[in-house]
Specification:
single chain; alpha/beta; 7-stranded mixed β-sheet; 8 helices; 14 strands; 20% helix
Length: 271
């Protein structure tokens, strides 16, 4: 229940892509994960769908977006949230075209304020309504909605609270909505991020591999410590590389923390 006594709206999370920038299998690789028969070891690049009541928010647009949407049976979305502008998170943006073609309306694209100009310049044809597609063709029709890191973003009448996290030389922006905390491409959780995530039921957190530290991402051990600091009932590790198999990681992780996989669906409990 909320502080006003109202029930939190139901939240449903679908992991569309659980892989890092190379995806799994990696081109030309014959390691045990890349040649695995376990479908959970096939990881497309990062994306997710968050459904809050009747609002559907897509998180990022990776290169495999069309394949992910078809696999998950997604027919409509209401908006898209961009965590940051690295290629594996934005280069499938043209696949948004089908949604605006069906609806005839611009799709709200929530972008951190510091990346809005870059998104516009890289994908001007998406966000400039004066650019018309050639006769007989179509293009995505997007509406840039820049947000700052310290104010809630209203999506379909629901408040998404941005959570900024360090990601090497840049910042990635996850969010908190109800009982869901969503973080990807983080190296640490700052004190302000930990405060924002306090009391979440379900946490999504990036992790790469065991052992070697990475300058811009959690490794698995670091992600586990961060997850323990948040203390969610359930933590899903995503953005995984081919250096770890799903079954081996699932067996190693402590209770309450598990590897995500493409197609995983989670019902999020109330905060």
């Amino acid at each position: 229940m909320t502080s006003s006594g109202r029930s939190d709206p139901p939240i449903r999370l679908t992991i569309l892509g659980s892989g890092t920038s190379f995806g799994v299998p990696v081109v030309g690789c014959e390691c045990p994960t890349c040649t695995s028969d376990d479908p959970r070891d096939r990881r497309t690049r990062h994306a997710a769908l968050v459904e809050v009541a009747d609002t559907r928010l897509l998180v990022d647009t990776p290169p495999e977006l069309r394949l992910q949407l078809v696999a998950a049976g997604i027919r409509t979305i209401d908006a898209v949230w961009f965590t940051h502008t690295h290629a594996d998170h934005v280069h499938g943006i043209d696949d948004l075209r089908v949604f605006t073609l069906y609806s005839g309306e611009e799709l709200p694209a929530f972008v951190p304020k510091e990346y809005a100009e870059e998104m516009y310049s890289r994908f001007q044809y998406v966000f400039d309504g004066s650019i018309e597609p050639p006769p007989g063709s179509s293009k995505p029709e997007g509406s840039l909605r820049p947000f700052s890191g310290d104010e809630p973003v209203s999506v379909g009448g629901h408040d998404f609270h941005p959570v900024a996290v360090p990601h090497g030389a840049v910042t990635s922006y996850g969010f908190r909505v109800g009982g869901l905390g969503y973080i990807t491409d983080a190296k640490t959780l700052t004190p302000s991020a930990l405060r924002a995530l306090e009391g979440v039921d379900t946490l999504v957190l990036n992790a790469l591999w065991f052992g070697d530290p990475h300058p811009a991402h959690f490794n698995i051990e670091e992600a586990v410590e961060a997850a323990k600091a948040v203390g969610a009932r359930r933590t899903l590790l995503t953005h995984l590389t081919h250096r770890v198999k799903h079954s081996e990681l699932a067996a190693w992780l402590p209770a309450g923390i598990e590897p995500a996989y493409d197609g995983l669906v989670a019902e999020v409990g109330a905060a």
